[in-house]
Amino acid sequence: MNITMAQALAAAQDRGLARIDAQMLLLHALGRSPYDRAWLIAHDMDALPAEAASSFEQLGARRQQGEPVAYLIGRKAFHGLDLAIDARVLDPRPDTETLSIGRWSWLRRWPRRVSPIWARAAARWRWH
Question: Among candidates 27, 110, 109, 105, which has minimal Cα distance to 73?
């Protein structure tokens, strides 16, 4: 049975997925960029291929169990960078961007000779 992309998205929302999450997962299942949401809206009456429907169902089930979308699609934008993400790293949140901007502005006020010492101490604490 072929369903349209709009029907697949509606069914995912009926199961409790947020609209943005469902769109991101469907784009990933279709092999498209997460930034192609306009394409998805323009093609919402197109039939969803069977292999994409299966992948979308699996991704939706994992999302309902609480797995972050970034882990499911393997990408996350952070400070204008498109980062590869999986379960081995923390999912960057918008608050983290705000915190890092504040941290960098704070570090610029320190003398240059102090910053490398702080960076070495932070790296040692983070990785050891």
Answer: 27
